[in-house]
Write a structure and sequence with these properties.
Elements lengths: L7 H24 L7 H9 L5 H35 L11 H16 L4 H23 L8 H25 L1 H12 L7 H28 L3 H6 L4 H23 L5 H13 L3 H25 L8 H19 L5
Helix pairs in contact: 1-3, 1-12, 2-3, 3-8, 3-10, 3-11, 3-12, 4-5, 4-6, 4-7, 5-6, 5-10, 6-7, 8-10, 8-12, 11-12, 12-13
């Protein structure tokens, strides 16, 4: 497969260019919205705070929103690379494998039956739901001969998605008050989230991102097939479990902060692969960067599509990702 950036020097230069684009996207996310601001207003909000609406919006809304979008986008982009490498399924992401729906189900149960209403509690319940569904998918995919094969993991994820989604819809149908409380959350959004929520899960995000870069080398070997990997002395079960844990932490922390946001983990690896090739190490670096940029752009667009109201960012990523998913499916996906 021909790649746009074949050499290491070009890949490093591409990362630097991507970092500049990311900074510009963060700037645009802070400046543009229903209340127009400028770079002077941004500086004054921290050097000469006067309590105006513009200053409050920048400090209390726009800055947390942009930082959350960056962190969540990075985690989702990287988790997409790991999921597609682990399952060897180019159409896989956290939504399709049932991790999003599992988190949503636990949130709905907490609201409908235990009257949980605080955002902090829902944050950790979402994290727990993602972890439980991820463990369940891996356990189901490991049953029978051959352990956790890519096909069995994909089928287990599809089963979890169907089960959790059906139960969620069933609970919401019979509990309208729960629907009102969780509808915006289960659509996925970075709006209205406080920086404290991000800070509470940021250590997990950082550790998982660093660990993903470390496990990228063994994942390259694993993608050649279990027999080849075992032939060169790799403990494939250890690598698979490690990748599964990282997927749960990356996806779970993202869901905890912003709710279930689909298609980012599906789209980003397909965008990155023609640029840097199939080396998982470079794919993870670029996918983290591109995931953050994509989520920032989606968030900015979500503010203007239905002004003066705004769409949840999960709806916007679905609008972007669904046509891409259909196109990729018609093409049969790309080889990873």
């Amino acid at each position: 497969m021909r790649v746009l950036l074949p050499s290491t020097q070009l890949k490093i230069a591409g990362l630097l260019i991507g970092a500049v684009i990311l900074v510009l996207a963060v700037y645009a996310s802070i400046i543009f919205g229903v209340i127009d601001t400028s770079w002077q207003t941004l500086i004054e909000a921290y050097t000469n705070f006067s309590g105006t609406n513009e200053h409050i919006v920048i400090r209390e809304v726009r800055i947390p929103r942009a930082l959350i979008a960056v962190a969540v986008g990075m985690c989702l982009g990287i988790s997409g690379v790991l999921i597609q490498a682990l399952t060897r399924n180019p159409m896989a992401d956290v939504g399709i494998l049932g991790i999003n729906s599992g988190a949503s189900l636990l949130i709905v149960i907490a609201v409908a039956f235990f009257s949980v209403s605080t955002l902090t509690a829902l944050t950790w319940i979402g994290f727990l739901g993602a972890a439980i569904s991820g463990i369940a998918v891996y356990a189901l995919g490991s049953l029978g001969r051959g352990g956790a094969t890519p096909l069995k993991l994909t089928l287990a994820g599809a089963a979890m998605f169907a089960l959790a989604s059906s139960l969620t819809q069933g609970i919401l149908i019979f509990n309208e008050s729960a629907m009102e409380e969780v509808l915006f959350w289960i659509s996925g959004s970075v709006a209205g989230r406080k920086l404290d929520i991000l800070i509470s899960v940021l250590p997990y995000m950082i550790v998982a991102i660093v660990a993903s870069l470390i496990i990228a080398g063994p994942m390259n070997t694993l993608k050649l097939g279990d027999d080849v990997a075992k032939g060169v002395g790799q403990r494939t079960a250890f690598v698979k479990v490690g990748a599964g844990i990282l997927i749960v932490v990356l996806a779970g922390s993202s869901i905890a902060v912003a709710g279930p946001i689909s298609f980012v983990g599906l789209i980003i690896p397909h965008i990155v692969r023609p640029i840097v090739g199939i080396d998982t190490r470079w794919m993870i670096a670029y996918s983290g960067l591109f995931g953050a940029i994509l989520l920032l752009i989606a968030d900015i667009l979500a503010r203007f599509v239905a002004m003066p109201k705004e769409l949840p960012i999960g709806v916007m990523t679905a609008l972007i990702g669904a046509p891409f998913f259909i196109y990729a499916a018609r093409k049969g996906g790309w080889q990873s």
